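Appendix B. One record, verbatim.
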Amino acid sequence: MLRYLTIPVTAFQQNCSLLWDDASLQAAVIDPGGDLDRILAAVAERGLALQQIWLTHAHIDHAGGTGELAERLALPIVGPHPGDQFWIDGLPQQSQMFGFPPARAFTPTRWLDDGDTVTLGEHTLNVRHCPGHTPGHVVFHVPQIQRAFVGDVLFAGSIGRTDFPQGNHQQLLDSIVQRLWPMGDETVFIPGHGPESSFGRERRSNPYVGGT
């Protein structure tokens, strides 16, 4: 069984998530944007063996702690899609611009593309490329527990911003309709900020994509 814990980090209250296999206690951390000591305390408290870093995209609040964490624990960095390379390269500048602790650029151990999979313990998760908020944004779908970690693509009652460099509003809407909705109305998603919701609820009531 896969379990997860969401830990809001940074001044932006970004939803960093720990995901682990409760049989082996092997764990991955999704979007370690900062507050690494809090994240590692949660890992230690549960006796987890942190083995991977997974990234949905490379904005500072999602990726700011990645380089340091990877170096500190010799962890592989998995994702995002190569379209976000310029965001990764700009992490030091992003950290200065938004008042974050110094962040370092890095090269992911493995880039991800649409249709790829990642593994954790005995479990396989699906990767969907969902551009629009950033060109290299990916989503991690866990069909075994009907969960999806969607970063800043979709929120409860809202959608991701597209006014950043290489953002694209229509592309974001297409990503949601074509790649998230087919995961099923019952799937609960963990957004990059704010509370969880389900795809069915957002299809019915989200003012930006409801009824699609």
